[in-house]
Amino acid sequence: MKDSFKFKKTLAFVQKHHTGQFRDNGLPAWYHLLRVSHILSSLLKETKEGKESGDYTIISRAALGHDIFEDTKVTEKEVLVVFGARGLTLIRGMTNWWGDKEKPRYIKQICASEEAVRLIKLADLCDNYTSVVYNIKSLGVPWTKFYFLPIVSPMREAISKTTFRTYKKSAEILLRAIHRAALLLEEEVIQLSHTPRKLT
């Protein structure tokens, strides 16, 4: 009951600060954050990893805030109050402080981070890949090929080479899901690239 109350409080905080922000598919930004959190919550319940360390619920809550420093003006003090010290640490580890133009720097940060941060990143990648698969017609092949894939593909490859011990099962499940989504996306890109345009 206590964890449920904390989660609702955290979600309300995230919704408030991401108000007016939308993803490229037109959905509010916080939908993505909630999906990433649910992916981790259901996965950790299934694998039972992180339960003994107390990260069982903290990781899924921290996932709600993984874009908060990048996309809002929220301070670390505010995040500390809502997410706690452990949550703040995970969110800081997930934050790309330099923007998409500094991909190698961010990849290096993530790969050098603790397992919990890398696990959140895998869930983030999983949701991003699947979202683009289902929305590729509206997002477009050029956006997918020249913006999205150059960001996510190197990150996926780099994390797959890191070692997971505490969250080994969870990481394996997510990596398999991401791999399948990446293959589906590749097929969609090829198919749509060869689909003749209708004359108007």
Query: Helical segment tally?
Result: 9
Distance, first to last CA: 58 Å
Kindly provide the radius of gyration, computed on alpha-carbon positions and rounded to a whole number of angstroms.
17 Å
What's the overall geometry? Answer: globular
Number of beta-strand segments: 0
Mean pLDDT: 92
Sheet with most strands:
none
Helix vs. strand class: mainly alpha
Strand content: under 5%
* Unreliable segments of 5+ consecutive residues: none
Q: Can you give the helix content as a percent range?
A: over 70%
String of helices and strands: HHHHHHHHH
Task: Lay out the secondary structure.
Blueprint: H1 2-17, H2 29-47, H3 55-64, H4 68-71, H5 76-94, H6 103-112, H7 115-139, H8 141-160, H9 168-193
Helix pairs in contact: 2-3, 2-7, 3-5, 3-7, 5-7, 6-8, 7-8, 7-9, 8-9
Could you explain how this protein is built, in words?
It contains nine helices and no strands. It has helices spanning 2-17, 29-47, 55-64, 68-71, 76-94, 103-112, 115-139, 141-160, 168-193. The longest helix is centred in the last third of the chain and has 26 residues, at 168-193.
List keywords for this structure.
9 helices, mainly alpha, single chain, 200 residues
Summed up, what is this model?
The protein is mainly α and 200 residues long. It contains 9 helices and no strands.
